[in-house]
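New to this. Help decode both lines:
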Amino acid sequence: MRIAFRVDASTEIGTGHVMRCLVLAQVLAKLGCHVVFIVKMHQGHLNDYIMAQGFSVYGMSVDDDYLGQGYLAWLGSSQQDDAMQFVDLALKLALDVVVVDHYAIDRLWQRQVSQVLDVKLVIIDDLANRYHDCDVLLDQNLWPNPQLRYRQWLCRETMQLIGPKYALLRASFQQLRANAPDKQNKVIAFFGGTDPTGECLKLLRAAATFIDLPFKLVVVTGVVVHWI
């Protein structure tokens, strides 16, 4: 089976979408699937990191003049243009499944792709704020009334995988359940994979003003840290 992930990382988007897709990609690769990533060439992309994990990466161009509102700005083009670029690449790859993890993509993109490609569409989402036309939707978060969360956003035929039992966790994190570290009197701080506003450094400077903190502070940094 040939599977492509349509996902982006950037200084604005962060790294989380790519990181959780890599978890799923590694499992699929172990099952014998051929997995590739199709991404926009945003500033702060993780293409080298993805390739270091053993996956091929195909880049799509960014329209520097594109002005989108909210999450739509993250795409770096209109959905129509993104879908056309994606299809041009996908036709050469003979794909069976496309996994999309992107807040700027909805059924407009999905329908345009489905009109050309005979593939199954899997969407990873956690916003529940737009329509999807897909075969499977995965939302790994804990929500009240999960069976109702996407009721107005999906077709009845869509398979919904909702809840923490579908969490995309690396094996090293899964093992922590069996060997949980001491969590008493400890605060863990993490400001995302890019931290463009330097929140990590702000926290460290604030903590340094205290002679002694009443707890152990553990700070986790992302791929890129800017020490200003």
Observations:
- The mean pLDDT is 90.
- The helical segments are 16-30, 47-52, 79-93, 107-114, 146-149, 171-174, 199-208.
- Residues 2-171 form a domain with the Rossmann fold fold (CATH 3.40.50.11190).
